[in-house]
Amino acid sequence: MAHNAARRIHVKGIVQGVGFRPFVYSTAKELNLTGWVRNSSAGVDIVASGKSDDLNILIEIIKSQPPPLAKIDHIEWSEIQVEVFPDFQILESKVIPGEFIPISPDIAICEDCQRELFDPQDHRFRYPFINCTNCGPRLTIIKDIPYDRPKTTMATFPLCAVCEGEYADPTNRRFHAQPIACPDCGPMVWFQDKNGDRTLHEAGLQRARKSLKDGKIIAIKGLGGFHLACDATNPRALDNLRIRKKRSQKPFAVMAFSLSVIEKYCEVSASDKELIHSKQKPIVIVNQKIENTLPDQIAPGHHTIGVMLPYTPLHLLLLEPDIDYPDLLVMTSGNISEEPITYTNADCLDRLHNIADGFLLHDREIFTRVDDTVLVSMDSQPYFFRRSRGFAPQSITLPQNNNNDLSVGAELKNTFCLSKGTYAFISHHIGDLKNFETYQAFLEGVDHYSKIFKITPQRIACDMHPDYLSTKYANEYAAQHRLPLTLVQHHHAHLASCLADNQYDDDAPVIGMIFDGTGYGTDGNIWGGEVLIGNYKNYNRAFHLDEMPLPGGDQAVLHPYRIGIAYLIKSGLSLDERLALIHNTDSVELEILAKQIELQINTPMTTSMGRLFDAVASLIGLRQSINYEAQAAIELEQIIKPNIDQAYHFGLNSGTIEIKGLLEELISDIFEGIPVGVISAKFHNSVVRLVVEIASQIRSQEGIDQVALSGGVWQNLYLLNHAIQALRGEGFSVLFHQQVPANDGGISLGQAAILKKI
Questions:
Q1: Topology of the domain covering 395-502+744-757
Q2: Which of 534, 513, 566, 501 is nearest to 716 (CA)?
Q3: In CATH, what class is 515-735?
């Protein structure tokens, strides 16, 4: 039948490198349409000619049944003059200056590729770099857009005849799969010992497996950087890894070949399984079984553990079950504690030489280093602790604004955000900018994202803290490029982040329960126990935790006993027998600390909720010094005795949340010998009741029934779950994070959202 209609269709979103053109091609062929489809710097363009009804079907299928990795943000089409083409074709990509498209994150190996990996009859049998348009590296190998092979780190591997045929065949799932490779033309893997002796290909892989089985520590080059791996069931190997990596107590994540292995050791809910099996294969925090054989060295003081499945073919081959082979391997970031993850072979051999006994390397270059994502199941949805591999740089939608903006985030757990139109591109996890190498990664990341998303910032936002390196960078950038600079108060950014995370596009104010460890306040003090009433544009500080001293500043954070002492002194509590609670000090130090507090020598004031958790952990004898950030508060959550309803009592006085009464009740319990698990539960319950009491008071005065929960303290899942339930039980609508972390990893999104409303 003659064609009676034609349309030009433009699709925007993650539509390149995900099999979108073959999908359009095959669908058009089935509908007897003619025309063409091609990639451009702005998305995917389609011209199709045929019957009007069939063109409608094509558009509907594109909307409702796109390829698995595609994410369609916008489709627009228009009627054009009918032109009969000889067939339907896939055209070469077109570069449009200044235009951009979203980029797919790196995605775990798909079922089809995994099946081929273990099929002896397949050309790619046991090939560690098997991939297709439905899986494999994306962000980590892209140098520029459009996303074509010459603009990736795969450009150095010319295709063999077999791969070339698949790459050029629109009916093949590897059509224009830019990382396509096979044993004849692609990257290779090898094992290298500390003397530089190499063993190539499968033999090298088996040598690495034997080393792991023998209790050795191996550095493994993965998708976005190096892991340090060892047998997770071998206490001696774990001890060696902790000593060499200088990570004495912070939990390790583990990787298993299959979910059934994880279920041997862990309690895995249906929602946990969904996240563990998802296309991103993140680290998922789950509960360990009460009785299991895992060594305590994996996660000291924790009843939870981070687990993940292999997300690359190399990891699958490394974890392949065999007689006497470890069930689980530790897979921790390839670095010395607090440094950024290593991602080049040369850097690995240099920086990890004194940690690893051997190195499993390959020659596919990683262009952008990306850490593993860490999350937990919350309300059957992912709740992020760290948003990185598999999710970055997937965009988050912001209110429409035509400005191109850069938001540089905070100092710890740094991410940055580049926004254009409604798109907010939040970077992968960068880390602690106090580390020089991490700061260099931040600079490289901003430059790279600006390039691949074709964003030249017109405005810039940063934290108010004058000493943050991100703030100093923003000041220099704004001055150099003559851009307007917006300083955003830390906790306002947390509030805005939670609103943007929930697609809240309303000027109506909400109640923000913003609890964290540290944030620079407008009065120059350290905030962190804040109740804000506000929106994107404005906020009022309705309540805040009592101001308390931090003797020694950062030293107090590292040594919670200093906080415990300071809080007792500042609260005016009797110091005789009560100070005997602090087991990590003596009378001389007590006298010095008391004088330091009295004279306010290097003793900043704080309203931090995180520091109150530290003080409680110290007073009950749980943790007097920490080895990693928030350790005291994390362990306080871990010891909670379940099914305890009692609580202590905060006082409310003219916008101040008073803690003296709570401390008196808590200390009384200590001297009465109440178990620490009960005390921890009562303390957590008291924070939950405080949240509900304050929210109810504000609602009665202001008529607001929306509550937003943000800040690092809300990574405490007991607190989060119970607060949500209690607030909902009182008729409040609760907003909590779903796309970015509640911690400082979400600050850049909040800064970006605030800029959009200015």
A1: Nucleotidyltransferase; domain 5 (3.30.420)
A2: 513
A3: alpha beta
The architecture in CATH of the region 104-262+281-286+301-378 reads Alpha-Beta Complex (3.90)
User: What pLDDT is stored for residue 576 in this prediction?
Assistant: 59
**CB-side neighbour CA atoms (13 Å) of 711:** 25
What pLDDT does 36 receive?
93
| pLDDT of 398 | 86
CB distance 237 to 216 below 8 Å:
yes
What average pLDDT does range 494-498 have in this prediction? 98
Instruction: State the Cα–Cα distance between residues 345 and 351, nearest whole angstrom.
Output: 10
Residue 575: per-residue pLDDT: 57
What average pLDDT does this structure show over 398-408? Answer: 85
Give the sign of the dihedral formed by CA 19, CA 320, CA 387, CA 378: positive
Identify whether the C-beta of residue 317 lies closer than 8 Å to the C-beta of residue 325.
no
Tell me yes or no: is domain 5-90 CATH 3.30.70.100: yes
- 395-502+744-757 shares its CATH topology with 515-735: yes
Nearest-angstrom CA–CA distance, 75 and 125: 39
Token pair recorded at residue 708: 């937003």
Between CA 723 and CA 609 the distance in angstroms is 15
Q: Which amino acid is at 700?
A: S
Rg (CA), the chain: 28
Which ranges of 161-223 would DSSP assign to H, the alpha helix? Answer: 161-168, 201-213
Give the C-alpha separation, 615 to 545, whole Å.
14
Arithmetic mean of pLDDT, 23-38: 92
The region of weakest confidence among 17-26, 119-128, 539-548 is 17-26
**How many angstroms separate the CA atoms of 42 and 60, rounded?**
21
